[in-house]
Amino acid sequence: MIERPYDVLVVGAGHAGSEAALSAARMGAKTLLLTQNLDVIGAMSCNPSIGGVAKGQIVRELDALGGEMAKNTDKSALQFRTLNMSKGAAVRSPRAQCDKKLYQFSMKETVESQENLDARQDEAAAVWTGDAGVLGVVSKRGVRYRAKTVVLTTGTFLNGLAHVGLETYPAGRSGEPPATKLSSSLRELGLETGRLKTGTPPRLHERSIDFSRTERQDGDNPPVPFSHFTERIANPQLPCYITYTNEDAHAVIRDNLERSPLYSGRIKAVGPRYCPSIEDKVVKFPHKERHQIFLEPEGYRTREIYVNGLSTSLPEDAQLRLVRAVPGLERAQITRYGYAIEYDFCPPTQLHQTLETKKIPGLFLAGQINGTTGYEEAAAQGFVAGVNAVLKLRGEAPFILSRDEAYIGVLVDDLVTKGVDEPYRMFTARAEFRLSLRADNADLRLIGAGRRLGLISEETHARFLRYQDAVVSGKVYPDAELAPWSMAKAHAERGIESAYAGYLRRERSAAERLKKLEHVPIPAGIDFASLSALGREARQKLDAVKPRTLGQAGRIPGLTPADVQVLWVHAEKSRRQTQEAAVEAES
């Protein structure tokens, strides 16, 4: 037995695990972070960037709520760019290239310095449960770690299997062993698991690249911080470079498809549609003459270059020929070869909107174990799970963001309501209210919620309220009373709100109509199978998801408006019966 019990135990110390552990500890819960390797807390396993279209909005939202990812990005970023500046404010998104090791060690320092948070190196092998729910976890060494709640953030480590050509080997990620026992424990507890796939590109040595044959891409000048609470960026900024594949590179891919694990049948799992391998791009888009490639520095003190856009699991000899067919890379030296990885996940329709499992009280899942891909999606889920684990212990109302409040709300609702059949990635198109859910107004939308959770300080909130007043009323304050905000930012925000006023009114009206359904509860414990007015498929899907409200039921794929109407009638009947019973009891 470990020496003392914890309130919250987080398994895994990637982006989801770090945010889960930090949020729980900052809310006052005694928290344990359990990881296979303490040296890789917050590691950027794949690309060296944070943010992007819709993803940048998620990070800004997380920051407004009191999360860590944006602050850590500002400490370690070597290039900042706002994407889609030529387009409307709704799709403008911050993105930053980071020094991978600086990001990792900054997050490690933050975790290890956090009050109420212990970090321990050990591997979880099983979830430990009792009659009332979770009791903790059992490690591979047989140690029992007792906790009132558990958050699993296992990334790609559950029965991870790496592929390079026709070679296959167990791995959670390159150079690290997989977790081989935890999946079977989850299945024994009644949770369903499946398999997904992701991949990574090769890395190149900087001195072997002819940058004169590429296009230089600089960041914003001056760089705009990711976090609302960072006043300026002091880090020196570095350029990235752009090049393109060509017919010679595509020929190498086509000539080696029989040795590709994707096309030889070795990989059975489904990969991310919106972040495909270069093999998929060439096969599925044969009419395209070239594909864009970004050459991105991995840090200030390393000469490795990340080849964004060239994710591949071809054999090593084919990877080398492929790389050297690309302009500027004719003499490139590969320092690390690309690979694909398959791993277990748990279909997220098994979760409540708090990210607690429906079958095992006190057990929460966050990150890639829920079928998502991306650092940002993982971090947001970790935060939601960590916060809700604490609120459950306190007996307080859960923290649930609606679809019109945040991209994080869209993310969680999509996962638990619609499920996934491929790795889930956030896009602006997934949000019905994206004009309201902008990167620039994440603070206005969510800092109040962060303060209510106790994750935004009173002093910071007071400064924010003055800034909010400046935006809403136009009142002028000295910048010293607003910092890290400013009157210039307040004026810019008022300009955006004014320019989109008519569109925003229509969007908010639609949101209000949606909320009418969202606030109509479906009776707890309802036996969907007994609702004979529904078709069998509808009953099966409702039983699998167990929606809390009519709004959530209406977003289940395959349910029709007529099905929702049947549920509405049943909900109203149940409400009247409850009221009548209460009146009788009083009389």
Write up this protein.
By secondary structure, the protein is an alpha+beta fold. Strands 1, 2, 6, 7, 8, 9 and 20 form a seven-stranded mixed β-sheet that branches. Strands 14-15-16-17-13-18 form a six-stranded antiparallel β-sheet, with no helix packed on it. The chain has a four-stranded antiparallel β-sheet with strand order 11-10-19-12, with no helix packed on it. The protein folds into four domains: 278 residues, 3-Layer(bba) Sandwich (FAD/NAD(P)-binding domain), CATH 3.50.50; 139 residues, Beta Barrel (Elongation Factor Tu (Ef-tu), domain 3); 58 residues, no CATH class; 67 residues, DNA polymerase, domain 1, CATH 1.10.150. 37% of the residues lie in helices and 18% in strands.
